[in-house]
Amino acid sequence: MDRYKLIKEVGDGTFGSVWRAINKQTGEVVAIKKMKKKYYSWDECINLREVKSLRRMNHPNIVKLKEVIRENDILYFVFEYMECNLYQLMKDRQKLFAEADIRNWCFQVFQGLSYMHQRGYFHRDLKPENLLVSKDIIKIADFGLAREVNSSPPFTEYVSTRWYRAPEVLLQSYVYTSKVDMWAMGAIMAELLSLRPIFPGASEADEIYKICSVIGSPTEKTWLEGLNLAKTINYQFPQIPGVPLSSLMPSASEDAVNLIERLCSWDPCSRPTAAEALQHPFFQSCFYAPPSLRPKPSVARTPPPPVGPRGSFEHQSVKRQPVSLANAKPFNSYASPKSHAAFGSGVQRKLEMANQDGTRNTKAVRSSVRDSKYRPPGKKSPPALNKNRFTRSVSEAADKLANMTIGGTGSRRHSVSVVGQHQQLKPPSMKAGWVGETRDMYLRPTQPTTNAYSRKVAG
Ligand SMILES: Nc1ncnc2c1ncn2[C@@H]1O[C@H](COP(=O)(O)OP(=O)(O)OP(=O)(O)O)[C@@H](O)[C@H]1O
User: Fold this and answer.
1) Which of 31, 111, 151, 204 is surrounded by the fewest CB atoms within 10 Å?
2) Is 159 in the pocket of ligand 1 (CB under 6 A)?
3) Which residue lies with its CA nearest to atom 15 of ligand 1?
4) Closest by Cα among 223, 334, 332, 326 to 280
């Protein structure tokens, strides 16, 4: 670690604190995630999902893991550095983002997701804080909960941030898919367009209530499997008609609203895949430039944006024709004009009780950490790193971190560099929110004249 100088803490997550740092030898700015838990052997490290999944991914919209270091039983991840996350961009903003910016970000994220899902992984914890931005580029970060799609259910230990959690996960389904990432993206898109979280549930039960309040309660037509799933846990959905999504984001285009409706479909099968989302008319003005066709970047370590408005890339021939999505259902079909008396009964308590089951998730822990997450950084000085290094040899570390590649010079005794591996893998599932908005926030159309994020942090 003495090759790096820690500059400033830029993030404090559940599992680690993240620091901006400089590689003293090369001058490269990096982000170093110092894990909170101690790791007493490499065996423990290689089993970390973050290591397992990230080392296999090499995509311009997935944050690059450059190196893993274990020193004095502390584990450090060295990542490429990104300027900020999407939440930070939204929180103090009064003026809505231009839709073109949102389109550009989302197009890139869907490309990253498409890559990841096709290689057999799903993220399980997409949220604005995990989407990192540097200038026009956005990258998916925090693979602490990523899973291989073909890993065997039941996925019991998952946790995800509640506001972005898919209904099948809220209903405790043990079998869920990469479509949970698509739900999260729908919620994130809506938040980007309105500068307000769309489903800000204060508990799991309230989360379902918030979802019903917006997209309307599920019916046999819209999510038969979900109704069955609810029966198995003795849960009864509140009966609420929902509201037109456009009323929550009056300035959003029809295409944007339509894409969000599809992403936030009750039935996971009705949600588009990431590859299908890229074909949605909302992205008509975007096109994907395969890496081989991209203009060479002038600075080698900063890849060019993989997306841009028509004409921003040299190779316009790669522009795709938009196609309509399969399984699309009109948004209004979600509406179910019944009362919502069923909610708030013993059923709700049951869900809340489930929250307290420590064997199933760590949501409470995450929630409390998250409350303190947005304090201004830089108050602490960089931790004094013990110079007494981890003494294992490179070859041993390499053996342990099976598919990682040892990088650099022979002097790197305690660290392992990582390069993306284009292996064919099999894909898979999610963390917690905090008490926030009042229940009826989305029952009436709102204008983002006040900033939702001050409440979000304070709540
Ligand atoms: N590569 C990076 N460059 C710049 N900042 C980063 C980078 N990686 C993470 N961060 C910052 O640190 C924060 C926490 O990082 P991360 O989500 O990886 O930690 P975590 O412990 O897994 O957090 P969580 O509680 O979300 O699980 C991010 O929201 C982001 O602001």
Assistant:
1) 151
2) no
3) 13
4) 326
- Ligand 1: centre distance to CA 126 (Å): 12
Q: Where are the alpha helices (DSSP H) in 278-403?
A: 346-355, 363-371, 394-400
**pLDDT 10s per residue in the chain (459 long)?**
889 999 999 988 777 899 999 999 999 999 999 988 888 888 777 767 667 777 778 999 999 989 889 999 998 999 999 999 999 999 989 999 999 999 999 999 999 999 999 988 888 889 999 999 999 999 999 876 555 444 444 444 445 689 999 999 999 887 889 999 999 999 999 999 999 999 999 999 999 999 999 999 999 999 999 999 999 999 999 999 999 999 999 999 999 999 999 999 999 999 999 999 999 999 988 865 555 555 555 444 444 444 433 322 222 222 333 322 223 333 233 223 222 222 222 222 223 323 333 222 332 222 222 322 222 222 233 333 333 332 222 233 333 333 332 233 333 334 444 433 333 333 333 222 222 222 222 222 233 334 445 433 222
Is 169 in contact with 158 (CB distance < 8 Å)? yes
Verdict on whether the full-model pTM lies above 0.80:
no
CA–CA separation, 429 vs 43, rounded Å? 24
318 DSSP assignment? G
Q: In a mutational test of the pocket of ligand 1, which residue from 49, 68, 129, 137 has the highest number of ligand atoms less than 8 Å from its CB?
A: 129
Let me know: does 193 contact 93? Beta carbons within 8 Å. Answer: no
Torsions phi, psi for 83 (to 5 deg): -65, -40
Structure tokens at 265: 């479909």
Q: Would you mind telling me the total number of residues written for the chain in this entry?
A: 459
> In degrees rounded to 5, what are phi and psi of residue 74?
-105, 135
